[in-house]
Amino acid sequence: MATSIAARFSRKVAASAFSGCRNVIGSRSFVTEAAKMISPSSDRVKWDYRGQRKIIPLGQWVPKVAVDAYVAPNVVLAGQVTVNDGASVWNGCVLRGDLNKITVGFCSNVQERCVIHAAWSSPTGLPAETSIERFVTIGAYSLLRSCTIEPECIIGQHSILMEGSLVETHSILEAGSVVPPGRRIPTGELWAGNPASFVRVLTHEETLEIPKLAVAINDLSKEHFSEFLPYSTAYLEVEKLKKSLGITI
């Protein structure tokens, strides 16, 4: 008696388990068939959310990057930004030219995590655009806003240059310095502190080393630049278009 009851119970359990598996398999096949029937619309815009955009046009303004300039993959250039020949913008920098122009001159470099932007106007009456001229080195984590840096200068890391400030040629700003709005750093001088103040006059040998540092960083950027395709990947889009149109050459 007990043996027959146990046998009937085991048969019921097995039958229920089999029916459950059959229902799961059936539901999976239904989902698969439904997925095949649903096709995406041909006019749907396909966005790529896997990475950030390096070049961000704003209205009629599109950032301009010279052919031999190095801009790291995770840099953001927005609006009125110009990166000239031989210049380099390193990882994590943000150059936001939505209100005014930003220019990075020949063989200048903007190092990691710098933020550069510009105001509508300057309270000092000087040009509100941010201008970095040739052979300038901007240290990492610096903040520049509507300032002018003349040729052959060094801005130490973690420095802040505010609206209307001017760094004249052959000058050095020590790390962590803060230049208030409208402050002028005369040519050939070393300044430091918060707020930045005069330290001493640079020697002739020190001024000669300023462009050499910019050239050395430019040479280093060429090694990073060699990791990318020299002619971009635009040809892949052309090949895809040719294939879709059935064009053979």
TrEMBL record:
Subcellular location: Mitochondrion membrane
InterPro entries hit by this protein: LbH_gamma_CA-like, Transf_Hexapept/Carb_Anhydrase, Trimer_LpxA-like_sf
Signal peptide bounds: none
Gene3D superfamilies: Hexapeptide repeat proteins
Membrane topology of this protein: Peripheral membrane protein
Family in the record: Belongs to the gamma-class carbonic anhydrase family.
PANTHER family registered for this protein in UniProt: DYNACTIN SUBUNIT P25, GAMMA CARBONIC ANHYDRASE-LIKE 1, MITOCHONDRIAL-RELATED
Protein name: Gamma carbonic anhydrase-like 1, mitochondrial
Organism field: Hibiscus sabdariffa
